[in-house]
Amino acid sequence: MTSRFRHRITSTTALLTLTLLAQAVPALAQDKVQDKAVTLPSVAVEGEAPRSVEAATVIDQKTIDRELPQTLRDLFQGEPSITVPGSSTAAQKSYLHGIDQSKLNVTIDGAAQRAGIWHHNGNLTLDPTFLKSVEVDPGVSPADAGPGALGGAVAFKTKNATDMLLPGQDVGATAILGYDTNSKTWRTTGAGYAAKHGFEILGIGTLSRGKSYENGNGVTEAGTGTDLVSGLGKLAYESDSGHRISVSGEHVRDDAVRRLRSNLGIVGGPTGPLMNSNTATRTTAVVSYETTQPTDWFNPGVTVSYTRNTLERPNENRRTTAHGAFDSEVDTIGLTVKNSFAIPTGTLTAGFDLSRDDIHIDRFHFTTDADERITTVGGFLQARLAPVERLRLSTGVRIDHQSYRSVDHKTFDNTGISPNLSADYAVTDRLTAFGGYSYNWGGLEMAEAALFHAANYRYSSDLKPVTAHNTRAGLRYAHQGLRLEAAAFLTYMENPVAWNYTTYTRVNGEDLRSRGFDLTAGYDWSNAGISAKYTHTDVKYGNRMALSSDYNTAVPVGDLFALRGHYGFEDLRLTLGASAEIALKVEDDALRANGFRSIDGYQVVNLFTEWKPLETAPNWTLRAEANNIFDAAYVSRSSYGQTSTVQPALAEGRTFYLTSTVKF
């Protein structure tokens, strides 16, 4: 893709976006004069609920409650477009079509979650029990999704009290007790919630404690034990006139002895295997305001957020040189203010957001610590239109200004524009064609905080902001319970963050490209469902395949399948389910040239049964899971690969997970 052609695509999209928005604004003014309510018509094919034009993947509360994921990897196990490495919770991070989470806009209840603690650790410690839904925009994302969505956006939403209450309840509670037979892990969750007279209150807490698990070879994977404490509290009030304010706080703490590098196999030292205390915490607080009774001109959303990610790694190995011993933290303060206006052909959302990221690392082997600060201010417009009966459009633009104060006390000020355009067209009542393009300006990417524990880095004075071109297009078919979808995607990123480790200098990296296609087939009955998903992803960094050593950039993916099915025997109050994850072998000259072995394929099969034993106690559920039933010894895709000196961390072998859930 030549530079001239890329700029032509960007300019054309920006011009088209601004033209559509320019047409929408006068219509908005005219609508104010008429003072007439206008509702955006929904376009839904038969057998399918109306869906966002932008979001390609939605994991809803029904799916989360049915699958009961315990980790980030469990949460995305049915979505092959999103991969999560195995090993301990400390090492789990997500990749979207092979693109590292640090290049995605990730939020929890609107609060930005920065990925930049340490490349050997995960980027997002969370408890899926708290989640209501997850929405994924792969590549093409709207302007109001936020800045920095280079490879897409992922929005996690946590549960409210009303999501937990049983029908007819205004006060309720939930108790969950689970046990994993492989790692001998006990997991206890307790929740209390109420909603009355406009007030809502919710409190959830989880405690998980267990030992290191055994892999499929029967070998204990040291440093994979569980010691997790998590809690979520929410308080909300909604007035009779629809004004709603919510305050929430979430805290997650993973505290255990881990491998010196959590995402690798055991690294040896002069005194034996190197292990180290590893305490990762995340605290997120959000205050939000919205109205549940919007008018044509008043449909606001205001979010004030604070997130703190920390990693504590004391110098327990007593090395005299920098060797993974440090304390690092990333603090993010954010504000988003927006309002959606009704216009004759749909809605127009306008607003601004700002954030400040403070990065700090205590360096035990230097006389000075290291700090960085990033300030970003942005404004956005996003129109969602239905100009004709079968056509839906979503187009917008945002402009961002970033001021980056680097670790070597330089200041980089940059401004950029990010247009986007998505559409779907109902060819028939059953068949929909969809597609989109976005140009995403990302400023200078946040550096990994813990990198600075090893050396005094400096920044090249000619650094360029990272940018990305994203396209996605395909067909979707739905009839009664049948669902079919095929989509091709391409992400092309320029000037990603990179480092010259010889001169300890930050530089612009080579172009990063991820392309491939996603296929989905499924069928739903009232008491059952089956689905099959396949993703082929080819990721290149420069002129070679992306490698697992390309930290904070991308990983090789290849071909992945995810199969799922469940069937409910309503008279017996019994549900049976099964899932499988299949990965094909990956071979490439770049692996051998850079010291990696071929990436082995694997097949993992899981079963579950869920039973409500007493007809008189319909809110008591027993669940038994048999995971990795064939005891496969495998390295989950996107984990660090095998070299002559690095043995990967194998995933958990066969295990049975037993759960009792009571709602009252």
From TrEMBL:
Limits of the TonB-dependent receptor plug domain: 54-153
InterPro entries to which the protein is assigned, alphabetical: Beta-barrel_TonB, Beta-barrel_TonB_sf, Plug_dom, Plug_dom_sf, TonB-dep_rcpt-like
Keyword hit for rRNA-binding: no
Family: Belongs to the TonB-dependent receptor family.
Protein's GO biological process: siderophore transmembrane transport
SUPFAM superfamilies, alphabetized: Porins
CDD domains: ligand_gated_channel
GO molecular function per UniProt: siderophore uptake transmembrane transporter activity
Subcellular location: Cell outer membrane
Signal peptide (residue range): 1-29
Its membrane topology: Multi-pass membrane protein
Gene source species: Azospirillum lipoferum (strain 4B)
Protein's UniProt name: TonB-dependent outer membrane receptor
Domain TonB-dependent receptor-like beta-barrel: start-end pairs: 265-629
Keyword Flavoprotein attributed: no
Domain of life: Bacteria
GO cellular component: cell outer membrane
Keywords attached to this entry: Cell outer membrane, Membrane, Plasmid, Receptor, Signal, TonB box, Transmembrane, Transmembrane beta strand, Transport
